[in-house]
Amino acid sequence: MYRRLLASLALLAALPAAAATSAPAPRPVVVELFTSEGCSSCPPADAFLSDLSQKRDDLLPLAFHVTYWNNLGWKDPYSLDIATERQAAYAHRFGDGSYTPEMVVDGTVGFVGSDRSAAEVAFREAKDAGSTAATVTGVRKGNAITVSVGSGVGNARVVLVGYDPQHVTPVGRGENSGRTLTESNIVRSYEPIGQWSGKAATFTPAAPTGEKTAVLLEAPDGRIVGAARVSNEP
User: Cβ distance 212 to 163 under 8 Å?
Assistant: First the structure.
């Protein structure tokens, strides 16, 4: 009897620890850098984003390469129309026009992408705001991805972002002619896969272009209210 009592007490003592272990981790703060290989001011911002991608699991850094530098001597091989359009939407909301390098944090604030001090303030404020409408997970198996969005309040667009962890590019012309650029988390695709309206939902899209994938929840006003990296099925 005494041994059974001790065993029961030990099990009860372990329950809070188990519950804490199973609690979902805070979502990463989404950091978007609008950049171009044709822009001489961009390499310091690209280097900053690379640092973040290597050292900060609490952030989801994504480099969107815009197209409006492509006719000025060097066509960025990773430039996407959607990157230019996405930045233009932010420019309309923020009222500051499109420029490179620009960093946008959680879809709420923009600033010069190489300004590390401003970035740290924005990261901290985004964490304090805790703007999460629902938990998000994504698992890849082969060429298919299962995205799960939990229940919550509000509505949002569910988006898959495909990206490559790193590329090294020798630049032959333009403002960065002669330089070899190392860039990280380069966005290769941006694909809306559905709408979330507060109820738990599951989506099963094909994997997008890009070596890795992330899931974003975008509120109607452009704020990021959920995010997750997609993991590979064990």
Answer: yes
Q: Could you tell me whether strands 212-218 and 144-149 are parallel, antiparallel, or unpaired per DSSP bridges? A: unpaired
Q: What is the pLDDT of residue 6?
A: 40
Is a pLDDT exceeding 90 seen at residue 167? yes
Q: Which CATH superfamily is domain 27-232 in?
A: Glutaredoxin (3.40.30.10)
Q: How many CA atoms lie within 13 A of 159 on its CB side?
A: 24
Beta 156-170 vs 212-218: how paired, if at all? Answer: antiparallel
What ranges do the domains of the chain cover?
27-232
Among 103, 101, 75, which residue's Cα sits nearest to residue 174?
A: 75
Distance CA 215, CA 15 (A): 32
Contact 193, 183 (CB under 8 A): no
Predicted local distance difference test score (pLDDT) of residue 234: 77
CA distance 204 to 140: 10
Residues 6 or more apart whose Cβ sits within 8 Å of residue 197: 155
Q: Is the pLDDT of residue 22 over 80?
A: no
